[in-house]
Write a structure and sequence with these properties.
alpha+beta; three-stranded antiparallel sheet; magnesium ion binding; AASDHPPT_N
């Protein structure tokens, strides 16, 4: 059952649960002016580095959304939430504000932002807009393993493009949950290929036995051209999905 709840239906986060938040990015000037003050000093500085204004607005809108949601979990005003960063740039809430060890991950594509939230464990989420101009065939040949390519191109031709985006979001979600980001090549590990459910299949030439669980996230029908996947390094038992306005 693919149930999405309104933000008014927010319930406390259980230890074995992941919350997924979906937001349609409003990048109108009035909205951007409202959200910008919520950002931390580091986020504001980063927003100024975007070459194109449309990318700056998307950054402000998605990070403003993130601040508003995280405030539900850590009892801190939206505009006071601050972050520390790993060497590879992955953020976490500063320790003094995070007594419940809230972990999160943000993704945005085109007009959509998604945020995954859990306790204690690492989490990664990816959302991708299925751009018709995307050279998905060429990308798959460059970044997918031989086995993934074989399974993908054995599908009926009309199913291959959607399957590509499902595979890609599975890979991105895994790269994000590890905290390695782009330093981990998508070709260094395998994920399942549709119609199989999302699953981390393991590393190529690597015996890392870390547990990773995946789940495809299916967006409401109005966002049918988007694909999303969740990954976490624990055996989560429940995923609850909210729409944030």
């Amino acid at each position: 059952m693919n149930k999405w709840y309104s933000q008014d239906s927010f319930t406390p986060l259980a230890n074995n649960e992941i919350h997924i938040w979906l937001n349609y990015l409003n990048v109108h000037e009035a909205r951007i002016k409202h959200l910008y003050p919520l950002l931390s000093a580091a986020e504001k500085e980063r927003s100024e580095r975007f070459k194109f204004y449309k990318h700056r607005k998307a950054f402000i809108a998605s990070h403003g959304f993130m601040h508003r949601v995280l405030a539900y979990y850590i009892n801190t005003p939206e505009n006071e939430i601050d972050f520390s960063y790993t060497d590879r740039g992955k953020p976490s809430i500063i320790e003094s504000q995070n007594k419940h060890n809230i972990q999160f991950n943000l993704s945005h594509s085109n007009n959509i932002a998604m945020l995954a939230v859990c306790k204690k464990y690492a989490v990664g989420i990816d959302v991708e807009y299925a751009n018709k101009k995307n050279d998905w065939s060429g990308i798959s040949k460059r970044f997918f393993t031989e086995n993934e390519q074989q399974l993908l191109f054995s599908l009926a031709a009309e199913k291959q493009r959607d399957a590509f985006f499902q595979i890609w979001t599975r890979k991105e979600a895994h790269m994000k949950v590890t905290g390695k980001g782009l330093s981990l090549s998508p070709a260094q590990f395998e994920v399942s290929v549709p119609p199989s459910a999302a699953e981390f299949k393991g590393y190529v030439n690597n015996t890392d036995n870390t547990l990773y669980n995946m789940q495809d996230i299916f967006l409401p029908d109005m966002f049918k051209h988007y694909f999303s996947c969740l990954s976490a390094d624990f055996n989560f038992e429940k995923v609850t999905q909210f729409i944030h306005s």
